[in-house]
Amino acid sequence: MPTVAPLDLSGHCIAAAFLAGVPHFALADGTIHRLDHGHKTSQANDGLLCATLDQTGAKLITGGEDGKVFATGPDGEATIVAEAGRKWITSVAAGPQGAIAFATGRSAFVRFTDGRTKEFVHPRSAEGLAFAPKGMRFGVARYNGATLHFPATEGKPVELEWAGAHTGITFSPDGNFVVTAMQENALHGWKLADGKHMRMTGYPAKVKSLSWSARGKWLASSGAPAAIVWPFSGKDGPMGKAPLELGTRGNSMVTSVACHPSEEIVAIGYHDGMVIAARFADSKEVLLRRPGKGAITSMMWDEDERRIAFGSEAGDCGVIDITG
Question: What is the pTM of this model?
Fold first, then answer.
């Protein structure tokens, strides 16, 4: 039976993550809590809005209302790596060779490892950000679609159009597809080779969490009373195929998903704080955590594939050890 080590914090957890095997919990007030031989706390942003891990998994990159981007290491030391004046930083993404992207208003910026920063201005606000898995390319979710930039060159950006407000973005692990989350309770995708569209609709709520399976054959998503898992193994992605529906519960929405690092299993967090694991092959479920005090907002597996850090909107955080 899995065991849960709880960490009761006060405030909305933006990100739960492992840095060098140490569980970290970044809260909206800018405090970063870690369980490292006891409960320790450090301070990053004054009002934290977004967070991600760098590609080495060694630093937590955060942005917030103070117009600053911080990098926090496993020792809790937070260093300012970029600033945007008095503007709120609403999205961050981590790229290859230590590159960082961040968005404020209509602008997206890329900060390279040598400290150079490049600005990309869009007609409407830059919402979600993501780097491609290969090469120096990043995508910006925006109103009426997405824009793909090549920040290391002066190359013309690729414009992917689809009417509506796009709020989040992700590249498939093989780099063949881009998927955005929309304000209209839907996902939209593009096959990059030919620009073919992929419509993924029918969600009763907004999709706020996306996670690719280990080999990129599946994309798990929140926004329904089950984890909706779209198949991406074919050359046209999920077109004409039905998604899996895992962990269906009639009385609580899925609010967070985190695919296992190597197996086709997904951890599913719900609005009532419950967490389960479900297997793609046969939909078998294991209860990992009983309902708690708030909706699960973030989850991450550790490198050893036996622990899951989780956080909730009520600060109801902790670590699940699936080996008991």
Answer: 0.96
Is pLDDT of 117 > 90?
A: yes
d(CA 256, CA 276): 11
DSSP string, 199-247: EE---SS----EEE-TTSSEEEE-SSSSEEEEE--STTTTTT-PPEEES
Give the tens place of pLDDT for each residue, 31-78.
999 999 999 999 999 999 999 999 989 999 999 999 999 999 999 999
Q: How far apart are CA 186 and CA 282, in angstroms?
A: 26
Q: Sketch out the chain's domains with CATH numbers.
A: 1-45+206-324 (2.130.10.10), 90-202 (2.130.10.10)
Q: How far is CA 104 from CA 36, 43, 69, 162, in A?
A: 33, 22, 11, 22
Q: Would you state the pLDDT for residue 152?
A: 85
Q: Which of 7, 17, 2, 14 is nearest to 309 (CA)?
A: 17
